[in-house]
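SUBJECT: A protein chain and its fold
Encoding: whole-number codes for local backbone shapes
Chain under study, with its fold:
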Amino acid sequence: EAANALLKIFEEPPKDTFIFLISDHPYVLPATLRSRFQQLFFSFVSSQILYDAAVARVQDRNQALFLAREAMGRPGILFRRFEGVDVFDTDRFLEIWLKIFEAQDFHVRVSYADEVLGKVSDLFRERLTNFLHIGGYLLRDVFFTRYGKEHLMHFLRFRERIQAIAQSPRATSVFEQRLLDSEKALRLYVSPKNIFEHLILSL
């Protein structure tokens, strides 16, 4: 309904009105909406620039490196981190990912659904998107660990727990595919809770 309402506004905009949509996930917008916009793509800011800004702010080089990597080329995320805002719930979501891999019982894993998705249904998709995003960073660190590139790790302070995950090549190969499948399912508007449960069941 919201998409249809927007479509009507875009087809017959008020006089002297300019409408801007800003998104880092434009593919989730219906094609009927995207087709009515002139699309402009902006490059991400280099990690070195963000790192320099972080060093100037926090002094600690290791912390600055972590913040610059977490920002993924987006200055706004870096500056919100300076203000104490964990944009992606990184620390909490990473801890949940680690617990999921460490838990032997499927029911224990599934029990984290409420913590990941929260209580507000309108935010389920956004929260699951962030959770998958952190999972991608965890997967990257697993590969860095496996191939002796630990100095490139994002979550260096969790090295030992990530090393344990890296001991199972099959688990991580399945993890990589399931992350991709989950992101695709989100774009197809599959229920976030179903996506989460399928992802956990397959690990």
Notes: The radius of gyration is 19 Å. The mean pLDDT is 84. Residues 10 and 16 are 13 Å apart (CA to CA). The longest helix spans residues 124-146.
